[in-house]
Amino acid sequence: MSRIRSFLLVAVLAAGAATGCSRHFYASRIPPPPPPPYAERARVRPPGPGYVWVEGYWLRRGNHWHWVRGYWTRPEHWRDRRW
Fold first, then answer.
1. pLDDT 10s digits, 13-70
2. What is the DSSP string of 10-43?
3. Whole-prediction pTM value?
4. What are the extents of the domains in the chain?
5. Angle at 17 between CA 25 and CA 15, to 5 degrees
């Protein structure tokens, strides 16, 4: 019985030591670079004064690239904000 206990004790200690020395390895697949930008259609007139055009761009989602079309937006004016 004493041999079994000593064997179990050695096994438990070896397992504990082995888990403390293990390294975490995360493999991640890097997708290829994005394709060239799309030639978007001619822009329509801005919806109002002060709008700027944001060109379309590629957005990475997971391991894939998705095209985000260009759009009109108003720029933020940080200096004009009242805190």
1. 776 665 655 566 666 667 788 888 878 777 788 999 989 988 889 998 887 889 998 8
2. HHHHHHHHHHHH-------PPPPPPPPPP-PPPP
3. 0.51
4. 46-83
5. 90
